[in-house]
Design goal:
By secondary structure, this protein is mostly helical. It contains 7 helices and 2 strands; from the N terminus they run ββααααααα. It is elongated, with a radius of gyration of 31 Å.
């Protein structure tokens, strides 16, 4: 295949890029690629080639390995978690909470659990919810008595309905 630019030499470089949503593709010979600045794309003499890109994506650069905070339980760093996408242990959530919260919120849309609970945990959760509901019903009954004494019948009717709803459930 011939170079797209000079149409003389054989193409040795295939470049695909997207800039501001516009896709461009070049099939070039070595000379034309050099003229267009595509010859040193993977040159190791450019140590910070992607450093600016990563900094713009992740904010400040990650600390070096020696300066990074480590989890005392599993020895994971935030960089390890970011690279693997896996948290090392439960203690990592406490240690790296501030760094993890934006990612968790971005992935799940919330930082509080608001979904299903596994079967083994479900009975414990239901038992604690029942206890708190019973306390709430008792408190509602006390408030109902106060509302009746004060002759606040609208509030008393609302409280009566809430009590019936919770006792019926």
């Amino acid at each position: 295949m011939k170079c797209q630019k000079c149409k003389v030499n054989d193409a040795t470089t295939h470049i695909k890029r997207i800039v501001n949503g516009k896709y461009t593709e070049y099939i070039l010979c070595a000379d034309c690629a050099h003229e267009m600045g595509f010859d040193n794309v993977f040159d190791t003499s450019m140590p910070d080639m992607f450093g600016g890109l990563l900094t713009s994506i992740f904010g400040a650069a990650l600390p070096s390995r020696s300066q990074a905070t480590r989890c005392p339980v599993c020895s994971s760093t935030y960089g390890d978690i970011k690279n693997t996408g896996k948290v090392g242990c439960a203690s990592c959530y406490d240690i790296f909470l501030q760094e993890l919260l934006p990612s968790i919120k971005g992935i799940h849309g919330n930082t509080q659990h608001c979904g299903k609970v596994s079967e083994g945990v479900c009975s414990e959760v239901n038992a604690s919810e029942q206890k708190s509901t019973e306390l709430t019903v008792e408190e509602l009954k006390a408030e109902l008595q106060n509302a009746i004494k004060e002759q606040n019948f609208e509030l008393a009717a609302e409280l009566r309905d809430k009590i019936k709803e919770r006792e019926g459930a």
